[in-house]
Amino acid sequence: MEAAMGLMRRMPPKHIDTALSALLSLLPQHSSDLLSQVDQPLQVLCDAEYGKEFILCEYNRDADSYRSPWSNVYHPPLEDGSLPSAELRQLEIEANDIFAVYRDQYYEGGISSVYMWEDDNEGFVGCFLIKKDGSKTGQGRRGYLQEGAWDAIHVVEVGPEEEGTTNYRLTSTVMLSLTTDNESSGTFSLSGSIRRQMNMRLSVQEGHLCNMGKMIEEMESKLRNSLDQVYFGKTKEMVCTLRPPAEVVMRLPDS
């Protein structure tokens, strides 16, 4: 199991589904652990009742059905699917509305979904998801990419309240993949994923959504900077070393 998880952490996002299917065939006894611990590229389904798309993931799945955050109904229908409590469902509705505004401001489009459920420690867990298709045929407004996808998964574990404060544990994963295919840059493909964690103990005076939102905003800023420095910065450095621009190539003087 440890070797399988190590392999999946190094797998490019566009190959995760294929690799995970192969591991499930090789390790059927660990299927539940693999499905719960391996972050897969996010998929989307439309809630026909509300006419809105929602994101599919392990956190809104029950058997082979997925719960919509808009209607609170499983697709395909599932009679005994788990549902959040009335209080937590109201918080989930508010979180989806607020997170949609955040998504539009930072991502200029895309799809977002928020799911919440009770845990075993008298607290609850919130999962905040964003999927942005940056390809020419998708939501890429600038048209630079032949293919492009940004999948962000933020899971916030909220502990029980103690003396007006609560412990928040945020685990964030971002999966990025992009491909260009044009005359100026040629064919170029880059993909990878990054995961980080953050723990904070905060006052609940301003509310859980405010606290979780601040943590996610701060974490996404750190993740974007890391991706820019690690993936794009190192790639640019390597390309410029192997193929220096013409203007910096020094000509040797004639002997």
Question: Would you kindly provide a written description of the structure presented here, covering whatever features stand out?
Answer:
It is a single chain. The protein is an alpha+beta fold and 255 residues long. It folds into 2 domains: 1-38, no CATH class; 85-242, Aspartate Aminotransferase, domain 1 (Alpha-Beta Complex). Helix content is 33%, strand content 33%. It is built from 5 helices and 10 strands; from the N terminus they run H-H-H-E-E-E-E-E-H-E-E-E-E-E-H. It has helices spanning 2-9, 16-26, 31-37, 86-107, 208-242; strands spanning 43-47, 52-56, 61-62, 65-67, 74-75, 111-118, 124-133, 147-158, 165-182, 186-203. It has a 5-stranded antiparallel beta sheet with strand order 6-7-8-9-10. A 3-stranded antiparallel beta sheet has the order 3-4-5, with no helix packed on it. Strands 1-2 form a two-stranded antiparallel sheet. The radius of gyration is 21 Å and the shape is globular. Heterodimer of an alpha and a beta subunit. Belongs to the F-actin-capping protein beta subunit family. This is F-actin-capping protein subunit beta.
